[in-house]
Amino acid sequence: MQTINFLKPSRDNIKNYSIIGSFLVLVSLIDVISNAFFKINLTFFLPGSLTTLFPLITGLIGLNMMRIDYSGNKTLDSLNKNINTNNFNALLTLLILFSIIKALPQSLSWMIFDATISGDSKDACTGTGACWTYIKVWFRRFMYGMYPNEFHWRINTAFILVIALGFVGYFMKENLKKYLALYYVIIYPVIAYLVIYYLISGGSFGLQWVETGAWGGLSLTFIVSFFCLIFCFPLGMIFALGRRSNLPAIKYISICYIEFWRGVPLITVLFMSSVMFPMFLPEDFFMDKLVRVIIAITLFEAAYCAEVIRGGLQSLPRGQYDAAKSLGMGYWKMHIFVILPQALKLVIPGIANTFLALVKDTPLIFVVGLAELAGMLALAKTNPKWLGFAMEGYIFASIIFWIICYAMSKYSYNLEAKYKTER
Amino acid sequence: MSDPIIKIQNMNKWFGDFQVLKNINLEVEANKKIVVCGPSGSGKSTLIRCINRLEEHQEGDIIVDGNELSEKTKDIEKIRAEVGMVFQQFNLFPHLSILDNCTLAPIWVKKMPKKEAQELALDQLKKVQIDDQANKFPGQLSGGQQQRCAIARALCMQPKIMLFDEPTSALDPEMIKEVLDAMVSLAKGGMTMIVVTHEMGFAKEVADEVIFMDEGMIIEKAETKEFFANPKSDRTKLFLSQIL
Q1: Are strands B192-196 and B33-37 parallel, antiparallel or unpaired?
Q2: Is A89 in CB contact (< 8 Å) with chain B?
Q3: Which one of A319, A326, A342 has the shortest CB-CB distance to B89?
Q4: Are A342 and B81 inside 8 Å of each other by CB?
Q5: Distance from CA of B52 to the nearest CA of A (A)
Q6: Is A421's CB within 8 Å of B83's CB?
Q7: In terms of CATH, what superfamily is A132-147+210-422?
Q8: Contacts across the A-B interface (CB distance below 8 Å)
Q9: Of A322, A337, A423, which is closest to B94 when you measure between CB atoms?
Q10: Model's pTM, two decimal places?
Q11: Where in chain A are the domains?
């Protein structure tokens, strides 16, 4: 005997059921939206507790009526498969939707409708919303730190040059491709260093000297991240290979290095680099604080890179080593042509992870007095003229960091797809 | 009688405390084809892996083409370049195309010009009948095609000796034939071959000598006809009765 369950659709009546179901979901959404945006209670006639539960109940019934294993309708199927697999998931879906809707009006009005962007002093911000005027006024500081305003073009030019040089490998001729690694590992960093040294630091070619203490803001974030990323990868590779070496000396040096740097907190390393390290140097030997910090972060992150790369090396089957050896390849040829290309491909996600962490660790250099983006925020929010706008600053910084990190992770996905070959 | 191209004398090998090879004596003359058979775990694979020093032996001498293999051997790469090897799991390089798999070692180890290496590779691929797959990647090929590519890759180094480590064990029956065909034609071309295999049909067809191993020892070594017609030891008889 067929049991009648009027809440359960079948393939014959799915059309009616889905129309009624979506109508009920729509009703529940409209109720929540009108409540959140216009402060209108559509269900004023119901007793108090039912009013709050009303959208949830109608939504659940609606989603239940739409749930069927295979309807033939693509939209409905993907909806059921992703957010409406059972009553519990339907409940979660509704709760998440409702909380987003509830939170939207306040955040929108704070960020956009009630926000101020005109004017150029604190007095302009009278509304209840965010004070974007603060970001506008401080924008140059957030980007360039204490770097003199009239020289900002020097930073911009240097960055454009460095980025352009980074694309050289892209247009390199086929017969020069074998020097690609050499270019990126040695020549490119050196050129980039010279460009940044002569353009941003100045001191020659008629450019005024600007000490690194004045550098700051997002441009400093970029400079620190750039050099650390570009140096820590090859260094990590060397230690990863070293740790797997058959020569005991090399092996134990690598293990000591990796375990030492992984064992100390970055903040300690930064303090050491700026306070302790100069004491060990001869009197007449001077090394800039920024350079010391970059070296410290590079050495620190290289240890992490090394372990990630070692993971990739270990995941290769022994047969690959055997095959390369049996063809008469020595250690370096085997690694350069057979092992590393495969291992590095495997560790792209792990390396991307390490690099993202590195970029997000750069604000720590604030502890040694270098103010990159987050550091500049900390300075700006304690400025007596602009007290009380920490929130806007941190939202601004998090948006910028998010954009940088998302771009990096997107790029790593592209790399993965590009080097994917069936195994 | 010419000098043997491979000469193994009183060779012993241990993995930790476990002795895998016991007092191995073996001489292989140039252009001879040797088939090594025996139950699994008998040390066959280890024996041929010792011949190009993918495994190190602890006692005794191994002399390959006049060069003694030991820790002191400086240019082990040079000896390995003379000894081709085909593995059970193919071990093609998955990140390189079939053609690049074949040209990699000739270009970088033998310093052959790229063009010459490619011609040679295509020639070898043609011999194993996969020259039409040259631009594909190993993952796109069937097991039999991959194994034939592995044979071609080893041959591109123009080795004097070819070692086969159970080349057909990871293949399904239909593909075994295409790989064996390639090996038979290679054998007819006069290559020195040492083949670890359970394919007794192949042994009967091309082998000059058959070696039977068990528990790390060479139990029996005889000319092919003799080996199959009247095996001497009881262990060999038992093995043959089970496998044939």
Answers
A1: parallel
A2: no
A3: A319
A4: no
A5: 7
A6: no
A7: MetI-like (1.10.3720.10)
A8: 75
A9: A423
A10: 0.82
A11: 2-113, 132-147+210-422
Nearest-angstrom CA–CA distance, B154 and A322: 12
Residues of B in CB contact (< 8 Å) with A are 49, 52, 54, 77-78, 80-85, 87, 89, 91-95, 104-105, 108-110, 137-140, 150, 153-154, 157
Q: Sign of the C-alpha dihedral, residues B194, B198, B199, B204?
A: positive
Q: pLDDT digit of tens for each residue in chain A (423 aa)?
A: 345 555 666 667 777 778 888 888 888 888 888 888 887 777 777 777 777 788 888 888 888 877 777 777 788 788 878 787 888 888 888 899 889 988 888 888 888 877 777 777 777 777 777 778 778 777 888 888 788 777 778 888 888 888 888 887 777 776 666 677 777 778 888 888 888 887 877 777 767 777 777 788 888 888 899 889 888 888 999 999 999 988 999 999 999 999 999 999 989 888 888 888 777 777 777 778 888 888 889 999 999 999 999 999 999 999 999 999 999 898 889 998 999 888 888 898 899 999 999 988 888 888 888 888 888 888 888 877 777 777 888 888 899 999 999 999 998 898 888 877 654
Scan for tokens 């300690």, then name that residue: A268
Residues 6 or more apart whose CB falls under 8 angstroms from that of B80 comprise A325, A326, A327, A328, B52, B53
**B78 vs A320, A328, A337: nearest CB:** A328
Q: How far apart are CA A304 and CA A309, in angstroms?
A: 9
Taking residue A186's Cβ as centre, other Cβ atoms within 10 Å add up to 11
The CA distance from A233 to A204, in Å, is 32
